[in-house]
Amino acid sequence: MLQAYSADLLIHNIGALSTPVADETECGVPQVETVNDAYLVIVDGVITEVGSGSPPAVGNALDAGGRVAVPAFCDPHTHAVFAGWRCEEFISRLQGAGYKDILAAGGGILSTVRSTRAAAQKELAAGLQGRLDEMLSRGVLTCEVKSGYGLDVESELKMLRAIRSAGEQSDIDVVSTFLGAHAVPDEYQDDPAGYIDDVVIPLIDDVADLDLAEYVDVFCEPGVFDLQLADRVLRAGRRAGLGLRIHADEMEALGGAGLAAKLQCDSAEHLLSARDDDLLRMRDAKVTAVLLPGTAFVLGEPYARARWMIDHGLTVALGTDFNPGSCPIIDISLIMSLACLKMQMTPDEVLAAVTINAARSLGRDDRGILASGFRGDVVLLDAEHFAHLMYRPGASLVHSVISGGRQVYCRK
Ligand code: NIG
Ligand code: FE
Fold first, then answer.
1. Which amino acids bring their CB within 6 angstroms of ligand 1?
2. Same domain, 268 and 129
3. Does some domain include residue 4?
4. Reported pTM
5. Closest ligand 1 atom to the C-alpha of 325?
6. N or C: which end of the chain has fewer CB atoms below 10 A?
7. Strands 140-146 vs 73-75: parallel, antiparallel or unpaired
8. Which residue's CA is the nearest one to ligand 1's atom 1?
């Protein structure tokens, strides 16, 4: 849960403070500015001063020990609440089974649905809490979590309540998304439209009334939900006052990115197979492309065309897609490495993608930049340059995490 207020704090002796630059980011060309020998003042949770040289006197001081400071990270796409891992599916995929074939045979997402339905809300919340702790130690202070392994009224509400209660116990600001349209449950196997009409659309209103989610999402993919059904889900979400996200063109180019543009969604996510014309429409409609290279890595699929998107003016954010199937990677810095090494993004673009761009896609415009007026959400890195985050996959560089001026993690 987000702490609105903390004591004043001076962070001094920062070797290099690196942050995306607000104005440049707004016009789509992410740039990082670095201040050497820096300090930062946080008052009432908000940054009031960034400077270099001798710092002002503030009662509460934190010596950064010459470390690098960057804005805390935001993970805008996770499926982090679930019961049961799927290691047997991993082993089958290594032997040649396809992700969608496993799903079509009742495994994959549907096997997580069975174990999640059987789990108590408390158990789901405890599992999520442990994963949020893992994310926090990697520098994440804002994180989206989707439902979507319940696929019936009771189990979807149970998941969303588990997200809420885990979020209340965590220093991470948890943003909840209703993904009832994640797969077609066994009970409706030949009738996806019936599932949407009977279960998903009525639930959208309940979820909004109960204030259990800020966003609605849909997995728009051949064999799951087609464009027409995705359109219905998203329009119902908008009528209920929710923000809109979409799993679009992940495995096949169905046109989900174009739908996202037509409905002016907050984000379209995955986009491994998205067509040029749909991507350009997304740019014009100001829909953020949330790219998830961990999933392409795990499934052995071609990566989303981040370079092309950025060169054509799209705003790109990055997330983990952390889930027990297609991407069991919880480490946002491994995602940063993949973005550089496999999608030809620059370290500057990647830093903006996991901070300001990701936060804005979740409506959190108050964070993601280290400058006056933004939240004092800071990560200190044991590194000489922020690009070590991308350069050294597998290294754990996060030393301290500061949320609104309060230190919430420090490596032992
Ligand atoms: O984003 N694409 C659909 N949903 C998830 C996978 C979830 C799972 O495999 O359990 C994804 O990749
Ligand atoms: Fe996903």
1. 79, 108-109, 112, 219, 247, 250, 295, 321, 323-327
2. yes
3. no
4. 0.97
5. 9
6. C
7. parallel
8. 321
